[in-house]
Amino acid sequence: xxxxxxxxDRLRRLGRxxxxxxxxxVVGTGGAFVIAGTxxxxxxxxxxxxxxxxxxxNALALALSFGFATWLVGVRLTKHSWDQLGWRPGRPAWPxxxxxxxxxxxxxxxxxxxxxxxxxxxxLAIGLAVVGSGASVELTPDWSHWAAQAGPVACALLxxxxxxxxxxxxxxxxxxxDAVGSVGAMxxxxxxxxxxxxxxPHAGFFGTVNVGLAAIWLSFAFFSAxxxxxxxxxxxxxxxxxxxxxxxxxxxxxxxxxAVEYRPGVRAWVDxxxxxxxxxxxxxxxxxxxxxxxxxxxxxxxxxxLA
Length: 307
Prior knowledge:
The chain is an all-alpha fold and 307 residues long. Helix content is 67%, strand content 3%. The protein has 10 helices and 2 strands. Strands 1-2 form a two-stranded antiparallel sheet. The chain is globular and about 60 Å long. Mean pLDDT is 88; it is low at 91-98.
């Protein structure tokens, strides 16, 4: 009888979680359409859909909308605290200062720390691609246009990383973790994250697996003291490291940043080929190393990995 009650309770909790996830998706998606339409009508969004500023505007619409959905569904309706949703500043940025200023400062430091680690992992992946597959990185004389292109690309990647973290970590990860446990929630959303990238240019099986592995890496960050700020920084740092430092494809997409040119080598299973490093073994190695770095001293205490 106890087992039946426990199973029935799990089903009820899963049903409630799915109901709130649907509400979250409806509010977030609907709001994004409204914001994007408003930007177009106000002529704020660039007309060229391939422009990095257009990508940044679209990502901003999604981030604002799903941020609002997180507050409405996560905080107001399901009564989760911001700390439970991953927005935990940790230690104050400035000892002795309390409140919002200290929280924002600490979150900013965590974001930068995550960005640095993510970019370092991108450097590792590219280095492995050069050594293991004969990939090349060439500098070009077109440095005068680098800042003009890199600025909007960086903005687009920063905001896109935020909205993807809101959609695939944040409230969804918390709701599912409450219903089926942290491990189950992490695996379900990793599967969803991988499937969401299946239609990307040049996507393949290896790339889908690595994208799912990236979701697990970012979920470990969510469940750490760094929370959403760390996951956001890691996500941005990885993408920006590939795109801005090397002009390598990011999940199949290229941004054509001047002054540097990346060419994959002869072994696509190693360097990912046209999909970028995420489609090859080099990303698998970098992501495993990044996950170990996120776990840090907790790596010997598995019980604390998803606390």
